[in-house]
């Protein structure tokens, strides 16, 4: 995704998977933001272990509330602060032109 993605409203009607690195824009390195349509989880084979290690399975992440392994807590906290700040500044729509 483009670096400006967090500044734009996205319509998710036709989006199956949105994958974005948080570094530089909404957080620090070590955090990836993934928005996944539940239909993708339903499509993924229950036995993907032959082609995909279980740690990389979106189905496993979904079934374990995004905590299949240890989450990067500092990166999540920093991102939380950034998202709160963006909200306090008026949200996504008002972020353009702010330097």
Question: Secondary-structure blueprint of this entry?
Answer:
Layout lengths: L16 E5 L10 E5 L1 H6 L14 H6 L9 H16 L11
Antiparallel strand pairs: 1-2
Comma- or semicolon-separated keywords:
99 residues; alpha+beta; globular
Description:
By secondary structure, the chain is of the alpha+beta class. It has one domain (5-89). The protein has three helices and two strands, in the order E-E-H-H-H. The protein has helices at residues 38-43, 58-63, 73-88; strands at 17-21, 32-36. A two-stranded antiparallel ribbon has the order 1-2. It starts with 16 loop residues before the first strand and ends in an 11-residue tail after the last helix. 5% of the residues are buried.
Brief summary:
With 99 residues, the protein is an alpha+beta fold. It has helices at 38-43, 58-63, 73-88, and strands spanning 17-21, 32-36. The longest helix is centred in the C-terminal third of the chain and has 16 residues, at 73-88.
């Amino acid at each position: 995704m483009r670096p400006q993605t967090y500044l734009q409203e996205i319509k998710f009607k036709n989006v199956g998977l949105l994958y974005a690195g948080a570094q530089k824009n909404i957080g620090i390195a070590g955090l990836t933001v993934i928005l996944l349509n539940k239909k993708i989880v339903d499509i993924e084979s229950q036995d993907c272990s032959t082609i995909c290690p279980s740690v990389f399975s979106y189905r496993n992440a979904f079934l374990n509330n995004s905590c299949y392994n240890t989450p990067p807590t500092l990166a999540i906290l920093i991102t939380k602060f950034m998202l709160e700040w963006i909200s306090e500044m008026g949200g996504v729509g008002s972020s353009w032109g702010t330097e």
